[in-house]
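Supplementary Methods, section 5.1.

A reviewer requested that the exact input to the structure prediction be made available. We therefore reproduce it here, unchanged from the version used in the analyses.
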Amino acid sequence: MSQPDRIEADPANGTVNIDGRDADIDSIDWDVPTRGTVFGSLLNYRGALAALGSAVDAPPYQAPPQAPVLYIKPANTWAPWGAQIVLPSALAAVEIGAALGIVIGSTACQVPERDALDCVAGYTIVNDVCEPHASLHRPAIRQRCRDGFCPIGPWVIERHEVPSPDALRFRVLINGALAAENTTANLIRPVARLIADITEFMTLAAGDILLAGVPENAPRARAGDRVRIEIDGVGALENSFVGERR
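The structure derived from this sequence is encoded token-by-token as follows.
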């Protein structure tokens, strides 16, 4: 079954209804649910910043970040629900970055924090996959931008269906076992403030996805693993990881 433009989804039970008919999530040929730019934000969880310890005070920065630390997940990284993510043969494992995806609904430029959520169309789930690396002082383009390293979906839950994006619990399960859990209540910049701070210097367009951040202690997955990210009120995103075949 192809993916319709609009469905009735029950995130709590993981079911969908299309034209009055219940459908199994596995029966739908999912696509990435939006086509805008995907922006990631680093160190926006209190635990992630605390985990760096004294490293944030070392040269060249010598202080914790005072503004959002952004990067882009380009189109080659996007993958839909259910897609197999290929791990290059040189990689033993990757970090699983569970992230709330904030889908922008209208042009946002210099938006005050009190109005920021009005620019949001809804929310989705993003797996910000990353090759483990130690460097903090250069953009991790090679590590974050490999093909398939940004599963998104399966859908966008409309904004009014999520009472507060700053109080969402989420879990990472690897092969059915709980590997990590956290909550967006631990964001340094809550969703509205993050949007306001970014649009102060950069315009966001309808369809763009802004990642609220990735928490500390990201679990690792290997070839053969199936990863499921659950966010309360938004749904679940599942993908499997396979080894590279040359």
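The first strand starts at residue 8 and ends at 10. These observations are discussed further in the main text.
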